[in-house]
Amino acid sequence: MKTNDFEKIAREKLTQDTYPVDVDALWDAIEPEVRPRKRKRFLFLWMATGFGLLISLFFITQKDSRLAQSPISSAEKIHANLAPPIDTIEYLKDSKKISRPKVADNKLKKAPKDIPGFTNTVKSNVKDISGSTNTVKSNVKTTSAFVAVSDSYHSSSSHRSFTRAEMDETQNTPSLQIKQEVLSLTPKIKITKQEQEDQQGVEADAVTGIPARTEDKQPIATVVLGNQNVPEKNDPVEIEEREETDVLLPPPGQSKTRNNAPRLLLGGGVHTGVSYQMVELTTSDPANEAWLQNRIETESNLEQITVGVEALLKTKFNWYLRTGVDYHRSVSQFEFSGTLIDEKETNGLIKTIRNPFNGVVTEEYGVTSERTETLWNKKIFNKIHQINTPIIIGKEFSLTNWTVGVEAGALLNWSLRQSGQILDGSNFYYLDDDPNDWFRNKTEMGWLGSIQVGYFFTPKTQLLVGVVYQSPITLSEDHNPILQKQSNIGLQVAARYWLVN
Amino acid sequence: MKSTEEHKIIAGCQARNAFYQKELVKRYSGKLMAICRRYARDDASAKDILQEGLIKVLKDIDQYQGKGSFEGWIKKIVINTALQQRSRKRFTYEIYSYENLPEGKILPEVYSQLSVEELIAIINQLPEGFRVIFNLYVIEGYSHEEIAQMLAITPSTSRSQLARARKILQKKIILPSKIRI
Known about the structure:
The complex is a heterodimer. By secondary structure, chain A is an alpha+beta fold. Chain A is built from eight helices and 18 strands.
């Protein structure tokens, strides 16, 4: 066969052929793709950052909550089984929110303005006096002996601490008269076991005569004003249920009373929603324009859902940090049609010629071709799975049980694309369902914005409805000639549970 | 038989060592680029195929069990990559047609004088589907059954398209021969 000569030479020459390649440039293009560990590490770091932040802040919250067991958030109070005190004083920092049980029959006085130079953040439960087991804790910064003025019956955390100098200073302030009030009473003093252990190297307090540490940051004494009978450790205590009307509860899940609220609230939740995808398709290859145009014209959105879990940390100013994991799935379909031409050739008898004059029959052999045309129509599915890890900052505004939240932040997107097709009437092939093509070569960054309206059904349970927008994110593989960017706008419903002490 | 150097490269690449990965690229990219040029319409597409094929080779190198020629294994991956990329762009090339060309004289003595570039130029004049099957069967040496599996077609389709390719080539070969004689 003469064609075989050509083929033989072509095979010999082409199989030995090499073509000059710029190896360095080629390697520069390949190297980032064959080192996926960095991207995985980046993904891991991103997720670890979000969750690490939450976990660390959670422990801070726990610690803070232990220190500041707020009477507002307590469901019950401990009262000594004694007559009410003659007089009690509670100074609150801003004097705006007062929370006292009625049974104590306390007289609440407006707190003086802050006196420069001292800190009024004593957080004490003083439960040794009333029979419970808590110890006095304080972060009062003082360099001299001081007295913590405390209502021990109520284990209040809203205490005021005064240094000696401050007590002297207030004597000359007619509106305050703190010193008079304090000194006119005979204070009963209890020192906790812990405090006794801590009282090494203390010096006497000038006001009370009680040993006090000069450098300690913790109160060494608790002054109970006007009590005739100070309860001993083993005295019976009565537990009184707090009535809602007795106290000024903050809005559920909120922290309005700055003095008493924990610094941070931890919450968790789930959300789900539907959305509309906005797809932007482009190509740099003009040969794909017709294909692209056809896809744009025939593409329809079949399904778009989102589900996710979230964890939140909220400050007492109602700013919050949210992170979690969202799963997002979108399915679209587009159609193509055309004609498949298949030609088959067979060697054989082509025709028989009979000479009418001599009767000789001649057979002609050769190649006969059979041409078949098949109309085909195929529907191509694009199913894209996305996993987003957002880190969002938001602010919530509250009105009674209703809230309005605005949030925005960055998200890390990882997507997995699956393609499939239905082909009618032919064996036309399509290799894009290779699993190797399902995985994208890189993760993408994007951003997210949302406005939500919420309602607290219980102090801990919040239901939200909101509109969410996700910025355009590239979802096509790097090697795909078609660049697909997709943004979403959707409606989401979320349920959150706040861990309120 | 694999050379010691080839063993080192394979082991190094399996350990994800960048030095040996680059050595592999340096060693085989010339031959692989020649293959890619036979399946691509232009050099830019050939480079894309080469790049993608080498990425697959380096990512999947753990799958190479040491049986058979390593170069053959790499070539097969690159050829498969070329076929996959062709299928992605196939939406624009799906329907091809060809002329019923008149048969001309074949001058065997000029075959040996043709350069590689001329050979590629002649083969590249074939319609897309014929060219792929011609390359796979004649140059790479795959059987019709293997080609049928690779392209998801029947072996008889592969045979008939090869026959058509040969017929077209017979016509194409005349031109350069006239120039040379």
